Amino acid sequence: MLGYTGMTSSAKEMSNEKDKSVVKVGDYIIIQRQNYTKLHKITQNGLAMLGKDQIELGSIVGKPVWTTYKMEPKKNGKRVFVLRECTSSESLAEQLKKDLSSGSDNRNIFDDGRSQLLSTEEIVGLRSSGLSGQAIVGHLIENSKTFRDKTEYSQEKYLKKKEKKYFEYVTVRWPTIRLISEIMFRTDPVKIMGLRIDTLSQIITNIGMHSHGTYMLYESGCQGLVVAAMLNNMSSGGHLIHIHPGNSPQKQAILAMNYTSDHMSCLTSVNIYSLLRKLLQDSSVVSEDANSSVSDNNKEAAEDNKDFSHVDIKEEEDIKPDTNSENNETVSTVSKENEVVIKNETESTNLINEKKRKHSDNDENTSKKPRWELETEKAADILNTHKADGLVIIAREHPTNILTALLSFVAPSRPFVVFSPCREPLLELYVTLKGKNNTTGLRVTETWLRSHQILPSRTHPDILTSGGGGFLLTGIVVEQESSTQEQH
Question: Which H or E run contains 216?
Answer without folding.
Answer: strand 214-219
